[in-house]
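User: Last request for today: this protein with pyridoxal-5'-phosphate, please.
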Amino acid sequence: MKLDHIDTPAALIDIARMQKNIARMQGRMNALGVAFRPHVKTTKCIDVVRAQIAAGARGITVSTLKEAEAFFAAGVDDILYAVSIVPAKLPRALALRRQGCDLKLVVDNPTAAAAVAAFGDQHGETFEVWIEVDTDGHRSGITPEQDTLLEVGRILHDNGVTVGGVMTHAGSSYELHTPQALAALAEQERAGCVRAAQRLRDAGIPCPAVSVGSTPTALAVGQLEGVTEVRAGVYVFFDLVMHNVGVCALEDIALSVLATVIGHQADKGWAILDAGWMAMSRDRGTSRQSHDFGYGQPCLLNGTPLAGYVVSGANQEHGILSLTWATGDEGGHADDIAQRFPIGMKLRILPNHACATGAQFPEYHAVSPEGNSVEWRRFQGW
Ligand SMILES: Cc1ncc(COP(=O)(O)O)c(C=O)c1O
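Assistant: Here's the final one, the structure of the complex with pyridoxal-5'-phosphate:
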């Protein structure tokens, strides 16, 4: 289908950009000598993940058991569920393992570790668990020097659970924007995770996998000694937040929302779009960064960014396109906006946060360089 025939709003994937992003990350990981395990929560789309695996990815990372179930059903069997497991979810994890899925669970506390051990014992299942390490204080995990690390390791190891490794995610990288700061955090992430693995091994607890990663640190890291694999998710599409972090150009962003101009408020210098926050998501991640992109960066249908314009406001199904706040007097351009953006004109809007925007849609329209599109399904729910 041609872009002109797609109902709006719609989520578009620029296949050429996506393939370039996949090749860039996989090429880096190959050069650094580590395995790459993409986080599929960004896309929740088997077509995208097939392209990542074809490029060399080994296994996937998921953020929900629904993703694990859906990707296992689609033929992927090496899966890291990278959110600390709660006991109520163990029956679903067990069902996956019984079907042959090499599902690895994550814990970061003694209670969860004991629950996995008890449940495994009760059901005669040897679960594999990775211990989450906190290397930057931004979210969950056990810091490398905490006694709890060895306590959790022992609860697992002594009770018949396989300790598969340690994993960390330096998500505070999203708050940085210089190559030096990113490289320093990437090294902190690497060193902290390697140190946690070493402490476990020194205590007699096997720890084969050392897994690190976020898109910014994966692209900034200089060396990965002691690391066995890297995880990254949003790199496959990139977005405006990543652009502000400094790891991609606007021209690398592979996800956009196709929208139609539906009206004007000429005195205010606004064009009204049929893509509001229901399409773009409420994510305003760039509002805390050096360049605030509002609800998104408008582009022409061919992908060329419309410099100086922004989606400055959003209601549920209405977006407001205007000149950027920085340019000042919007009223002076009132005539221009109606002429430049006539009713019926279609635009592509780059998102702040690709994971959040993608989640608004049940499917993507994957667009080839020739401008033809096919539908790629996307999973939803938990
Ligand atoms: C545990 C874990 N690993 C990896 C990632 C991938 O990070 P990014 O999307 O920055 O590549 C995430 C993202 O939230 C995560 O939570």
